[in-house]
Design brief:
This protein is mostly beta strands. The chain has one domain (3-135). Helices cover 13% and strands 49% of the residues. Strands 1, 2, 3, 4, 5, 6, 7, 8, 9 and 10 form a 10-stranded antiparallel beta sheet that branches. Strand 6 (86-90) and strand 7 form a beta hairpin.
């Protein structure tokens, strides 16, 4: 088997493994989401795909629905936090949206599977992220 075929198979298996780890987040007050695959597109028509760290996108994001905040994990050492304004659960989906630093972002998370689709847009650039989410245990 060619090296490129082995690499493609490895990447595919990693993506399937991350999808398989998604979880039911229906009643969760806070969840942990992972980034699996990223595509960045520019207004000139060029698009690039790859891993989240290629574009300084956190591999894991904690989402607190009660406090309406997204934040990086403590282990990441990034100490990033972003509030979101719109939050809604409807027809088995979680929708959240916000704006910060010239960027608009939108998350759609399936409550039963935990699979997520995320879009971030700024002038001339869009970023699409697919990932998976699982409930965070309450620290109460």
């Amino acid at each position: 088997m060619k090296k490129s075929s082995v690499l493609c198979l490895t990447i595919l298996l990693m993506m399937v493994a991350s999808v398989a780890t998604a979880d039911d987040v229906k009643d969760a007050e806070a969840i942990l989401c992972s980034s699996a695959e990223v595509t960045v597109c520019y207004s000139e028509g060029d698009c690039e795909g790859g891993s989240p760290w290629t574009w300084n996108i956190p591999e894991f994001i904690e989402i607190d629905f009660t406090k309406k905040v997204l934040r990086t994990t403590v282990a990441s050492g990034q100490n990033r936090q972003t509030p979101f304004k719109n939050f809604e659960r409807e027809a088995g989906q979680i929708f959240l949206q916000g704006v910060e630093a010239g960027r608009a972002f939108s998350f759609v998370i399936d409550e039963v599977s935990g699979l997520s689709s995320i879009a971030v847009a700024r002038n001339g650039v869009t970023v699409s992220v697919f990932g998976a989410c699982t409930p965070l245990l309450s620290s109460k």
